[in-house]
Amino acid sequence: MRKYINRNSIIVLLFASLLFVALTSSYNSIFIKTIDQNVLSWMIEHTEISLVYVFKFLTLLASWQCIILISIALLVFGRDKLKMLLIPSITLISVLSNETIKNVIVRPRPNVLALTQASGYSMPSGHSLTAMVFYGLIMILVVANMKDRRYRNLTRVLLSMLIILIGVSRMYLRVHYLSDVVTGFMLGLMIISVIYNVKVGVFDNITSYLEESNE
Q1: How many domains does the chain have?
Q2: Are 171 and 43 within 8 A, CB to CB?
Q3: Residue 214 falls inside a structural domain
Q4: Which residues have C-beta within 8 Å of that of residue 55, sequence separation ≥ 6?
Q5: Which pLDDT does position 1 carry in this prediction?
Q6: In this structure, is residue 28 part of a structural domain?
Q7: Across the chain, what does the average pLDDT equal?
Q8: Residue 66: how many CA atoms within 13 Å on its side-chain side?
Q9: Residue 210 lies in a domain
């Protein structure tokens, strides 16, 4: 029986959409500002030089330079060239959309001494969005095809941890508030959920149809 939508991903899409709208419309509220400031203050109080270098490396993994290098590797070594091309293409469109949203919200970055260079507005976090979309697409379009279940699950866990740590790095380096990172993640989850349903409803069904035709 062919599937056309994935119920769990629809639930994720609805949850991410609601949280995204809630945060982008109320980030100036006393409640959100208090949480953001408390988290930022905690990060500042617990700044360690060694961790600064670690988080600078992690944040680099969501930079455009790193995304290009990984994308080239996927195109060279990946079997399904169309899917490998879709990963950076969808990521690029997502980043451009995020920049548009930033220019609508126009939230200033934290007014503290940043530990890395950052330009533009603060919400949503571009690095958090990029990490969620790019590495999320790798999980959906590449990792899902791994035959060994143990390696497949291990890779998913490692990539999930990487996504979260990239978001944390943006706060630790003092260029984003917690709500910026969460909205970046939520926007990324919205995009990933839509793409996953397209995969389930289109790509997987086409593959099944071709396999049935060859039998």
Answers
A1: 1
A2: yes
A3: no
A4: 165, 168, 169, 172, 173
A5: 46
A6: yes
A7: 88
A8: 14
A9: no
pLDDT digits (tens, 9 = 90+) for 173-204: 999 999 999 999 999 999 998 888 877 656 65
Q: Is the previous residue joined to 124 through a cis bond, with omega within 30 degrees of 0?
A: yes
- Report yes or no on 113 lying in a domain: yes
Among all chains, which residue has been given the structure tokens 């260029």? 175
Six-digit token string for 40: 């930022």
Query: Could you give the CA distance from residue 27 to residue 30 in angstroms, rounded to a whole number?
Result: 8
Q: What percent of the chain has pLDDT over 70?
A: 89
Cβ(110)–Cβ(177) under 8 Å? Answer: yes
Q: What angle do CA 6, 12, 17 make, to 5 degrees?
A: 125
Tokens at 54, concatenated: 């670690």
Model confidence over 81-108: pLDDT tens digits?
888 899 999 999 999 999 999 999 999 9
| Residue-range definition of the domain harbouring residue 112 | 7-198
Q: Residue 135 corresponds to which amino acid?
A: Y
Question: Is residue 158 a contact partner of residue 100, using CB atoms and an 8 Å limit?
Answer: no
pLDDT at 88: 92
Cα–Cα distance for residue pair 112/45, rounded to 1 Å: 13
What pTM does this model have? 0.86
